[in-house]
UniProtKB/TrEMBL annotation:
Protein name, UniProt field: COL6A
InterPro entries xrefs: ECM_Assembly_Org, TSP1_rpt, TSP1_rpt_sf, VWF_A, vWFA_dom_sf
Major subcellular location class: secreted
Record's keyword terms, sorted: Disulfide bond, Glycoprotein, Repeat, Secreted, Signal
Any single Pfam family the record assigns to this protein: TSP_1
Superkingdom, natural source: Eukaryota
Signal sequence, start to end: 1-18
One GO CC annotation: extracellular region
Length: 1091
């Protein structure tokens, strides 16, 4: 066994690397792509982590480093994964070793599974430095077992399937040998030492084993021409032992390099067959590395047959083999169809040619009908989307291959028309005599994109012509950038905005963009005054100023910077951003009672740099910023905002109740998903966080910057021309941040003494896993602990679901809190699918029955916790609707990134801000306990808790809907109004209610005479929208007395008029507000400062 060899070497070395008398086998300049995955969890500790780094630095020092030699990258992991640098980052030994020594220690849990998944998807890609034909080596170092062993094994298996040699080094007594063997490529790739001091004894043996490269075959090339046109010939295809080449004692490739098969077995005819179809055979220029997003839609119906389906796959494999494959070049995905649609893989699945071609060859044949319409609809909705690899400014190409007419020609034409409207170039290839040319032309972009061949054997004759047409890219304009400053301040000037022909750029003979790149318009046409006017700032222009701010003083503020580290930024500009942040920090008093700084970077995903409680003085905070690494990748702003909300601003990570909460987002481009970005920004603001957005250059989208930032925009949105100009806004941004006041958070939930019948519905599916399921049970125990349990108080039942539903216990089974918590702890994990709909139906029909303990007149509350999408969304939403219609209040909690937010909101009661909860992962689920317990107590309050007021009155509520309130607080305001209305006897001869909201302007929601019963008023309140904007209180007061308190709108003579104004801040125009209030002296006016 290799382990015996390793330890023989260790003993011979007398446990001291310096005593080695025979030098290790050197890789010399032989190229290798090596990535280290280092355990940075809490069990390692900072001193041992340093020893780990010394080991890696010494290992690297033995190689010739460079883009044509050995490349090394490093990733660390604990609770989260942190890429330190990719293999193509450092091309000389000195820089590489210095970077290894600067890698920071994290601490946390041992999430080996997530780290392996990240490495599989990101470390060995062309963008990260992976080179075709060069051996890929991953070296995993850990001192303990993973937090999720089953998932770790699954992720390791995926790595092994992607041609990566994996070494596993276990250190100390906390390791598990069997897990290391699952992580490594085989047992010979596992090494263990007793402690971190003994690591250096492994250097020689590890290097020797790592340098040994067994040869691997390349993919087969294309088939040769058949030796005969009829009567039985042969054809062959070749492969070479170069993927990688054998080196340093490695084994040669096993098996023949040539594959030979019979061909053209049909008898030769006595007469030559007629020529029927023109087949272009011109040899054409390659697309080279011009990026393209290509998806194939292949007919796998019964008329094709298994043999011809294989020829279809050979055609696609050969087509793919002619391109440079990778995330910066050509991407290819494949979907097959017959009676049903089957996605084989999306465009971002394979980042190199060899695994892509292998995946194409492995696609199974289906058989069935020819439902082309359904297939096109599926591709339109799924294939060309951001999560599945679609890239901005890259041409989208769909190639449809079929041997017959579709089952539903009108539907096929309709779906193809929709697809054409989404900027996708569609090619249609018809094979054989069963096709219909007219239908192919409706599927394709135009008739020039239609190809036909006589049979499947003739497919390869299309390769060159198809590639030529597919590679041709007509240029497209980008959106216009921002307007330049006006050339004059008055007297008619001009300003301009520009666009570029890069969406996409023209390539391979494609047409250039049509029209002008610059748009010029007049501005400031007003005459110049004879005396200088007072300086003003238009309210809609992004705020740019060069004010020098004084220090904030010792004011508690929790400030999290969210910095764009995407590919469009680049390392030089990213460093300028870091310099800007360090200069900002100089203006804050950092300390226990002053400002705390946290920092998150983002590209394709968010990356924690440090939390609010990491540093307590200015020097250490500045040093922490200096050590941040540039990542590159996409622009996933939404997930970065979500991370700030669910993780950065948690008390466990340093957020303080008495401190202002501030997020400063700096970005140079449009986010991957503007709707998701706006939604996450709203949720962040709803938690009391003031958001500033800073856009750099022409890439950012101003409406998106506005959607991210707190209102008003002209105080919270900044735009500069480039990264050098960031320093122009430092003073003003710093001053605005200093002016933010702390938002009072709601008090912790008290023990709830109301009556309620509560059922937890817990997701026990395979995606949850046993470890996280236990965390879910712990969360349920914590919530139960806050209730008074008993037959006359709160009752709790639990159901679990996966592919099936399981009753764990009914509400009337336990009347003792400790017994109930013990029962929760003992609930078993099942695994399986996510059949949420049937689970909700079971709960509605069974768990809230009288036999299960439900009490008449007691509120029914369901709490659904899930980590993913349901198996049947339509059924789930339908069953949730029935549950709510039965009088059940449904609280939905989504955990992790697999959640469909729309589905979660469809399950829950309204408003969603009160009944929908999200947690970043199961570890932070417990942070929701207090708010969930409080919400459950509110829901359990009996409807008749307040006696009706018998007074006759006309009452108008005037509610502040300005930007400073936020959606979450506005919903609380509506809930407060509903609580008041519950206590009134509403009717035409009793109390009448009217409501208006206001921000920039006043909006009458309904007048006094609109509704004659309480329930109608309550329902109308539920549908009042949040608007956002300024605080124009004066206009609202004027609307109240001039419109709402009039006989035409329900005011009754001789009946008291009562106005109730609820606001959270100062009005835009206090003198005007005071004047309008004087006009209300004849009314009874209440005002309340909210929150």
């Amino acid at each position: 066994m290799r382990v015996a060899v390793a330890f023989t070497a260790i003993i011979g070395l007398q446990l001291a690397y310096a005593a080695v008398t025979q030098p290790p086998v050197s890789c010399g300049t032989n190229p290798a792509d090596i990535h280290f995955l280092l355990d940075s969890s809490g069990s390692v500790g900072s001193p041992n982590f340093q020893k780990q780094k010394d080991f890696v630095a010494k290992f690297a020092d033995q190689f010739t480093i460079g883009p044509k030699n050995v490349q090394i990258g490093v990733t660390t992991f604990a609770s989260t994964t942190h890429p330190q640098f990719f293999m193509n980052k450092y091309h000389d030994k000195t820089s590489l070793v210095n970077a290894i020594k600067a890698v920071p220690y994290q601490s946390g849990n041992t999430h080996t599974d997530e780290a392996l998944k990240w490495v599989d998807q990101h470390a060995f890609t062309s963008a990260a430095g992976d080179r075709p034909g060069v051996v890929n080596i991953l070296i995993v170092m850990t001192d303990g077992q993973s937090g999720n062993p089953p998932q770790t094994v699954i992720e390791a298996a995926k790595l092994h399937g992607h041609n990566i040699r994996v070494f596993a080094i276990g250190i100390g007594n906390g390791i598990r040998r069997t897990e290391l063997e699952k992580i490594a490529s085989d047992n010979a790739h596992v090494f263990t030492v007793t402690n971190f001091d003994a690591l250096q004894t492994l250097q020689a043996e590890l290097k020797k084993t790592a340098c040994k490269v067994d040869g691997g075959y390349s993919s087969y090339g294309g088939w040769s021409k058949c030796s005969k046109t009829c009567g039985g010939g042969t054809k062959h295809r070749d492969r070479t032992c170069t993927n990688p080449k054998p080196a340093n004692g490695g084994k040669n490739c096993v098996g023949p390099s040539r594959d030979t098969q019979p061909c053209n077995a049909q008898a030769c005819p006595t007469l030559p067959p007629p020529t029927t179809t023109h087949i272009p055979t011109t040899t054409l220029k390659s697309c080279g590395t011009v990026p393209a997003d290509i998806h194939f839609l292949l007919d796998a119906s019964g008329s094709v047959g298994s043999s011809n389906y294989q020829k279809q796959k050979d055609f696609v494999a050969k087509f793919a083999d002619s391109f440079t494959i990778g995330p910066q070049n050509v991407q290819i995905g494949v979907t097959t169809f017959s009676s049903q649609v089957h996605n084989q893989f999306f465009m971002n699945k394979y980042n190199s040619k060899a695994p892509l071609v292998s995946a194409i060859k492995a696609m199974p044949y289906q058989s069935g009908g020819t439902n082309t319409d359904t297939a096109i609809k599926y591709v339109d909705g799924n294939a060309f989307t951001k999560p599945h690899g679609d890239r901005d400014h890259v041409v989208n190409i769909l190639i449809v291959m079929t041997d017959g007419q579709s089952a539903h020609p009108p539907k096929t034409a309709a779906e193809a028309k929709i697809l054409h409207g989404h900027n996708v170039k569609v090619f249609a290839i018809g094979i054989g005599n069963g096709i219909k040319r007219a239908e192919l032309e409706t599927i394709a972009t135009d008739s020039a994109h239609v190809f036909t061949v006589q049979n499947f054997d003739a497919l390869n004759t299309l390769q060159a012509e198809l590639k030529k047409t597919a590679c041709k890219v007509d240029g497209g304009w980008t959106k216009y950038g921002f307007w330049s400053p006006c050339s004059k301040t008055c007297g008619s000037g001009t300003h301009y905005r520009e666009r570029t022909c890069s969406n996409p750029p023209p390539a391979n003979g494609g047409k250039n963009c049509v029209g002008a790149a610059r748009d010029t318009q007049p501005c400031n046409t007003q005459p110049c005054p004879t005396t200088p006017p007072p300086t003003t700032r238009p309210p809609t222009t992004p705020y740019i100023a060069t004010t020098l701010a004084k220090s904030c003083g010792v004011v508690p503020a929790d400030i999290v910077f969210i910095l764009d580290s995407s590919g469009s930024v680049g390392l030089p500009n990213f460093n300028k951003m870091l310099d800007f942040v360090k200069n900002m920090i100089k203006g804050f008093d950092i300390g226990p009672t002053g400002a705390h700084i946290g920092l998150v970077t983002f590209s394709s995903k968010p990356h924690l740099e440090f939390h609010l409680n990491k540093f307590t003085d200015k020097a250490k905070t500045t040093a922490g910023v200096t050590n941040i690494h540039y990542i590159s990748g996409g622009t996933n702003t939404a997930d970065a905002l979500k991370y700030a909300r669910t993780t950065s601003f948690l008390p466990a990570n340093g957020a303080r109740g008495n401190a202002a909460k501030i997020a400063i987002v700096i970005t140079d481009g449009k986010s991957q998903s503007p709707p998701a970005t706006a939604q996450e920004a709203q949720r962040l603001r709803d938690q009391g966080v003031t958001v500033f957005s800073v856009g750099v250059g022409t890439g950012p989208n101003l409406p998106e910057l506005n959607a991210m930032a707190t209102d008003p925009n002209n105080q919270h949105v900044f735009v500069v021309n480039n990264f050098d100009a960031l320093k122009q806004i430092k003073g003003t941004l710093q001053q605005k941040a200093c002016e933010v006041k702390a938002t009072t958070m709601p008090p912790p939930a008290k023990n709830c003494g109301s009556k309620a019948d509560i059922v937890f519905l817990l997701d026990s599916s395979g995606s949850v896993g046993s470890t996280d399921f236990k965390k879910m049970l712990g969360f349920v125990e914590g919530v139960v602990d806050k209730f008074t349990i008993g037959p006359n108080d709160i009752q709790v039942g639990v159901d679990t679901f996966q592919s099936t539903v399981k009753k764990e216990f009914n509400m009337n089974q336990y009347s003792d809190k400790n017994a109930m918590k013990a029962a929760v702890k003992n609930i078993a994990y099942h695994g399986g699918g996510t059949n949420t709909g049937p689970a909700i139906k079971f709960m509605t029909d069974n768990s809230f029955s009288t036999a299960a303990g439900h009490r008449a007149g007691v509120p029914k509350i369901a709490i659904v916790i899930t980590d993913g999408n349901s198996a049947n969304r339509a059924n789930t939403l339908a069953e949730a609707q029935k549950a709510r219609a039965s009088g059940m209040q449904v609280i939905a909690i989504g955990v992790g990134h697999g959640i469909n937010q729309g589905e979660l909101e469809g399950i829950a009661s309204k408003p969603k801000s009160q009944f929908v909860y999200n947690a970043e992962n199961f570890d932070v689920l417990n942070t929701l306990q207090a708010s969930l317990s409080s919400k459950t107590c509110e829901a359990s309050t009996p409807q008749n808790a307040t006696k009706d007021c018998g007074t006759v009155a006309d009452i108008v509520f005037t509610l502040d809907s300005s930007g400073s309130v936020g959606k979450a607080n506005f919903d609380k305001m509506l809930a407060f109004v509903k609580t008041m209305v519950k206590g009134f006897n509403v009717g035409q001869n009793k109390i009448q209610i009217g409501i208006q909201t206001f921000s920039n302007r006043a909006k009458v929601q309904f007048n006094l005479n609109k509704f004659a019963d309480k329930q109608a008023v309550m329902t109308a309140i539920d549908h009042i929208p949040y608007v956002s904007g300024g605080t124009n209180t004066g206009t609202a007061l004027k609307t109240m007395y001039s419109k709402m308190f009039t006989q035409a709108n329900g005011d009754r003579p001789g009946i008291p008029n009562i106005g109730i104004v609820i606001t959270d801040g100062r009005s835009n125009n206090p003198p005007n507000t005071a004047n309008e209030a004087k006009n209300l002296l004849c009314f009874l006016l209440f005002s309340r400062l909210w929150f």
